[in-house]
Amino acid sequence: MKVFLCPSDTRQQSRLSAGTNIRSNAGSLPNTYTDANSRFAGPATVIHVYSNAVYRAIHTASLSSVTDGLSNTVLACEKLRGDDSSGIFDSSRHTLKLNQPIDYRISIDGFTEICLDPNAEFVAFETKSGLTWLFGSPTTTTYNHVSGINMPFVDCIGNNGVDIVSMASARSQHPGGVNVGLADGSVRFVRNGVALQVWRALGSKAGGEPLSNDEY
Predict the structure, then answer these.
(1) Tens-place pLDDT, residues 102-118
(2) Separation of first and last alpha carbons in the chain
(3) How far apart are alpha carbons 24 and 189 in whole angstroms?
(4) For FRET with 154, which of 39, 108, 130, 171 sits at 20 to 30 Å CA-CA?
(5) Is 186 exposed, middle or buried (0-12, 13-18, 19+ CB in 10 A)?
(6) Alpha-carbon distance 145 to 133, whole Å?
(7) Torsion angle, CA of 63/26/50/17, rounded to 10 degrees?
(8) Which pairing describes strands 177-182 and 164-167: parallel, antiparallel, or unpaired?
(9) What domain count does the chain have?
(10) Domain range spanning residue 116?
(11) 75 lies in a domain?
């Protein structure tokens, strides 16, 4: 569906793909398995709650719960699509899978340190990010504000058999940044060099971080 695809993304669609460049904001934490009222969750993500071996999905946010302000909270953003290839690695589109269990309660900086460790062991890489929006899985329909925009390092994912923990960065082929849709319905272009603390503040719905429009 063309409404989900960015014309600037030059990667061709497979006829078997239901691809999207528009990803909902999972917040500024590396995990999606968290309390629905987490102040660092994103406004558009679906939170998966693990209880008694049953996965449930609930919407996280009403407009009134976005206490950081609708104009200071990102609802959705661009992310480059993966492809159907399993052999050619692309650091801007694919996601490395950590070869170690990750506690879902890990801090944002703790998980980033693991992902960027030059000695980290990876078991494989995921190539289908953004190709199956109709399945609604967090790894194909969301992104997060753990790292900055269009970062030179690759995205990273880990789990402990149940919970998904990830660094899923906003990425585009636009020169200099990405387009974001804010919770107030407006669209803005955010530059690559925006301060990480500002980008993370834009990712949380109720983080309480001070933020002004001239910072992004």
Answers:
(1) 888 888 999 999 999 98
(2) 30
(3) 16
(4) 39
(5) exposed
(6) 20
(7) 120
(8) unpaired
(9) 1
(10) 18-205
(11) yes
